[in-house]
From TrEMBL:
SUPFAM superfamilies: Resolvase-like. Residues 409-436 are annotated as: Disordered. It comes from the Bacteria. Residues 19-166 form the Resolvase/invertase-type recombinase catalytic domain. Residues 174-298 form the Recombinase domain. Transmembrane segments: none annotated. This is Recombinase family protein.
Length: 436
C-alpha cells in the first residue's frame, strides 16, 4: 500500500509580551508637585503602550509620601500585584523615587528578584535583575539615603532659626483661630465658644458636663464629629488662647521614619509672649490650670490600679465600644462606655450586673467557682446584645449565647433549674465545636 505523507506547517509560536508597570511618586502635596506627578503618569503610560514588546500593566503613583517609608499605599499594591504575577517589570524614574532607605530598597529589589520581577531605574540606567545591578544599587542607594539625611539636617537648622525668631513652622487652625500666613487670626464666633468652655470649667463643671451643655445649646465642634472629654480638655490646656505661643511642642524622630513625637524635654521649646490676639486672659487660663491640677491630684491614687476580670473583653453589641465597670448604689455593673459618656440617645445599650457575667461564665465553662485564668484561656470576647443576651466568642472559634434574667427573677431559680441551664450551655458549646 502506498503511503501518503502530508506535511503540516507549524503555527508560528506566540511570543508573550512583558507585563510592564511604572511607579511614580512626589513627596509633597503642593499643586506644582501634583502636576509633576500627573505628568509622570502620562509619560509612563505612553512609554509602555508605545512599545510593541510590552503589555501595559498600570501606573502606580503615591502622593505626599516620603521615599523612606514602606507604608506607601500604591507602592504596597505594586508589590502585591508583582507577587500575583500581574507584573514582569517595573519602570521608575530614579532610586530616590523608589526608596531613599537603603535597607528598604535592597529588601524590595531582592524580594522582586526572587520572583523574576525586574526594576528599571531610568536615571541610573540600571536593571535590578542584572548581575551587577545589586552592587551598583547598594552604592547609589546609600548616597540617596545620605542625601535624605543631609536635607533633613538642613531643614532642622532652618526650623530652629525660625523658632528662635518667633516664627511658626507648620501648625494648623484650631477652635477660635484660623492660621493665615503663619499667624493665628481670631474667628469671633468660635472664640465665644472657647470663652464659654473656660467659664463653665471655672464655674465647677467637668468636661463631661460641659459637653452636655454645649450639646443642649446646639453648639457643634468645628474639627471633630462630636464633643468629647479629650477634645474639651485639649482646649482647656491650650496656652495659645492667652496670646502666647509655645514652639517646638513636637519634633520629627529621624529622617528615615519621619515619625512625629511629642517633645518631652528632648529638644528646647520656645515661648513667644503676646504673639497674637488673646481670646482669654492669662489669669483665666492659670485659674483653669490650677483647678485641673487640683482635680487631677484629688483623683490620683498611688495604689496599683485594680484590674477587673472582664475589662477589655466585654464589648457593646450596638456601638462596638468597650464595657466599663461601675458601682451603682450597692451593686457592681458593667455599662457601655459610649453610653456612659454621651447618654442613651447616642447608644441605648443596657447595663449588665457584674454577678450576671460571673454566673454566665461559670455556666458556660462548667466552673463551680469563677477562675479568671481558666476564663481567659477559653474566652476571647463577650458581646452584650439587646434583650439580655450575652454572646461568648470562644478562642476555639465557637460562639455561645447566654440569656440572662433580671436579678429578681434569677433569685427564684431552683438548684434544679440552674443545673438544667448549665447543661444546655454545655451542650450548645459542644455542638458549636462540632460545627466549627
Amino acid at each position: 500500500m502506498k503511503r501518503t505523507i502530508t506535511k503540516i506547517e507549524a503555527k508560528p509560536r506566540l511570543v508573550s509580551k512583558t507585563k510592564v508597570a511604572a511607579y511614580a511618586r512626589v513627596s509633597t502635596g503642593k499643586d506644582a508637585m501634583l502636576h509633576s506627578l500627573a505628568s509622570q503618569v502620562s509619560h509612563y503610560k505612553k512609554l509602555i503602550q508605545d512599545n510593541n514588546d510590552w503589555e501595559f500593566a498600570g501606573v502606580y503613583a503615591d502622593e505626599a509620601y516620603t521615599g523612606t517609608k514602606e507604608s506607601r499605599t500604591e507602592f504596597q499594591q505594586l508589590i502585591k500585584d508583582c507577587k500575583t504575577g500581574k507584573i514582569d517589570m517595573i519602570i521608575t524614574k530614579s532610586i530616590s523615587r523608589f526608596a531613599r532607605n537603603t535597607v528598604t530598597l535592597l529588601k524590595t529589589v531582592r524580594e522582586l528578584k526572587s520572583i523574576d520581577v525586574d526594576v528599571f531605574f531610568e536615571e541610573q540606567n540600571i536593571h535590578s535583575i542584572s548581575s551587577e545591578g545589586e552592587m551598583i544599587l547598594t552604592l547609589l542607594a546609600s548616597v540617596a539615603q545620605e542625601e535624605s539625611r543631609s536635607v533633613s539636617d538642613n531643614m532642622k537648622w532652618r526650623i530652629k532659626r525660625e523658632f528662635e525668631n518667633g516664627v511658626m513652622w507648620g501648625g494648623k487652625s484650631s477652635l477660635g483661630y484660623k492660621l493665615v500666613d503663619k499667624k493665628l487670626i481670631i474667628v469671633p464666633e468660635e472664640a465665644e465658644i472657647v470663652k464659654l468652655i473656660f467659664q463653665l470649667y471655672i464655674d465647677g463643671h467637668g468636661a463631661d458636663s460641659i459637653r452636655k451643655i454645649l450639646d443642649s445649646k446646639g453648639i457643634k465642634p468645628m474639627y471633630t464629629k462630636t464633643w468629647g472629654h479629650s477634645s474639651i480638655m485639649k482646649i482647656l490646656k491650650n496656652r495659645n488662647y492667652t496670646g502666647d505661643l509655645i514652639l517646638q511642642k513636637t519634633y520629627v524622630e529621624n529622617h528615615l521614619t519621619k515619625k512625629q513625637k511629642m517633645n518631652k524635654g528632648e529638644l528646647n521649646k520656645y515661648l513667644i509672649t503676646d504673639n497674637h490676639d488673646a481670646i482669654i486672659s492669662k489669669e483665666t487660663f492659670e485659674k483653669a490650670q490650677a483647678i485641673r491640677t487640683q482635680r487631677a491630684s484629688k483623683n490620683k491614687s498611688h495604689a496599683p490600679r485594680q484590674q477587673y476580670p472582664f475589662k477589655g473583653i466585654t464589648k457593646c453589641g450596638i456601638c462596638g465600644s468597650s464595657y466599663t465597670r461601675k458601682r451603682m448604689r450597692d451593686k457592681l455593673v458593667w455599662v457601655c462606655s459610649l453610653s456612659a459618656r454621651q447618654g442613651q440617645e447616642v447608644c441605648n445599650a443596657k447595663l449588665v450586673p457584674d454577678n450576671i457575667i460571673v454566673e454566665a461564665s461559670n455556666h458556660i465553662l462548667g466552673m463551680d467557682q469563677y477562675d479568671d485564668t481558666y476564663f481567659k484561656s477559653k474566652v476571647k470576647t463577650i458581646i452584650v446584645k439587646p434583650n439580655r443576651l450575652l454572646e461568648f466568642h470562644m478562642k476555639d472559634g465557637t460562639i455561645i449565647n447566654y440569656h440572662w434574667e433580671h436579678p429578681s427573677r434569677s433569685k427564684s431559680w431552683t438548684p434544679d433549674m440552674k443545673e438544667k441551664a448549665r447543661q444546655r450551655s454545655l451542650l450548645q458549646h459542644q455542638g458549636g465545636k462540632q460545627n466549627a
